[in-house]
Design goal:
Number of domains: 2
Strand order of the largest sheet: 11-14-17-16-15-18-10-1-19
Number of helices: 11
Largest sheet: 9 strands, mixed
Radius of gyration: 24 Å
Length: 374
């Protein structure tokens, strides 16, 4: 095997989707953007569908096309695109991919492309209910609905969905959650007044799927929870199983005296004679450089901390007097069942979120798969 790899448990992904489905009567979209949150988009998509997902969600048009190229014909929604991607838009509409629309300009391009193709484009109109990211404003919403209704009358578009996205569903009880629910309900009512009645109303992300049933409507969109990472860590893991284990092997060991400076800038200095283990993975592979003197690792079943700065290709661990040899397994994070660190542990020490930890594992790290066909 390669000295460094990310091992992805596809059975865990399928089981996580089944767990999420047990929390709702709505359909479930598994979000597989960003290469399946670093797990591998196509294998993750197949595992999610095997677990009961009815939809797949991606950000980019190219991601949707990659799913189709892999032979995946499940319903797919792509939601982040620009007018400069006219050719890609043509390709995704020809491939039967649903697209999100947040403005009259975007709708015009979709209508023109669908007309050229001689087909009906399936669109999901996005309303901004308070995240202030993409999505149509409440002020512009009636005009977008009117234009959509006119386009639907010509057969150019079909409004498959009306959707929005929470800002703080991972903080249950945050006042913005109730405010966005109310704003979304208002947007749906205005849509009905304009004759736009979507088949799918969707608002809930992973956190809302697990904690806010009144937000489920017809479809929930689960992202991070599909990969087994809790969207609300303070409330436990909800029965989810982390799917990725990032592991490597010790490249070498050496005995050094007290007072030895370790790695660039000597940010770590040994306090006594000790053994240093060299770990051949670094920030080029996605290990945060900020993990110097903080990042947790497991070697030989024992927990240690990165010693000194993380380099591009490697870092050092002070293992004291432990018996560690070149070739011994190093686990940076995994599900935690064997006492190894988790992605949440890394997030905690780095003051970030576990999303970043798994998605930043770089393409230089090969993925291997267990628990299903990749």
């Amino acid at each position: 095997m390669p000295h460094t790899e990310a091992v992805v448990d596809l059975a865990a992904i399928a089981a996580n989707v089944a767990t999420l489905r047990s929390h709702t009567a709505a359909e479930l979209m598994a979000v597989v953007k960003a290469d399946g949150y670093g797990h591998g988009m196509v294998p993750a998509a197949r595992a999610a569908l095997a677990g009961g997902a009815g939809w797949l969600g991606v950000a980019m048009l190219d991601e949707a096309l990659a799913l189709r190229a892999a032979g995946i014909d499940a319903p797919v929604l792509a939601w982040l695109w620009t007018p400069r991607e006219a050719e890609a838009l043509r390709a995704v509409l020809a491939a039967g991919v649903d697209v999100s629309v947040s403005s009259g300009e975007a709708l015009d391009l979709v209508v023109a492309t669908a007309t050229e193709l001689g087909s009906t484009a399936r669109v999901h109109l996005k309303i901004d209910t308070g995240l202030s990211r993409n999505g149509c404003t409440a002020a512009d919403w009636p005009a977008l609905l009117e234009a959509t209704a006119k386009a639907a009358a010509t057969g150019a578009v079909e409004t498959t969905g009306v959707w929005s996205h929470f800002a703080s569903a991972d903080s249950p009880g945050d006042p913005s959650v109730a405010g966005q629910l109310e704003a979304y309900g208002t947007a749906l009512a205005v849509a009905r007044e304009h004759g736009v009645v979507p088949r799918l109303r969707h608002l809930a992300n992973s956190a809302a799927t697990l904690t806010l049933p009144q937000s489920h409507f017809d479809l929930v969109r689960a992202g991070i929870a599909v990969y087994g990472l809790s969207p609300v860590p303070g409330r436990g893991n909800f029965g989810l199983v982390p799917a990725m284990t990032l592991r490597t092997s010790v490249a070498g060991v050496k005995r050094v005296p007290a007072g030895a400076g370790v790695s660039y800038g000597h940010a770590y200095v040994t306090e006594r004679e000790t053994t240093l283990a060299l770990v051949p993975v670094g920030y080029a592979d996605g290990v945060p450089r900020a993990a110097g003197n903080t990042g947790p690792v497991a070697i030989g079943g024992s927990r240690y901390t990165v010693s000194g700065r993380v380099c591009m290709d490697q870092f050092v661990v002070d293992v004291g007097d432990a018996e560690v040899s070149a070739g011994d397994e190093v686990v940076l994070f995994g599900p935690g069942f064997g006492g190894e660190p988790t992605a949440q542990d890394w997030a905690d020490v780095l003051d970030t979120i576990h999303y970043e930890i798994v998605t930043r594992v770089g393409p230089r790290v090969p993925r291997s798969y267990t628990g299903g066909a990749a």
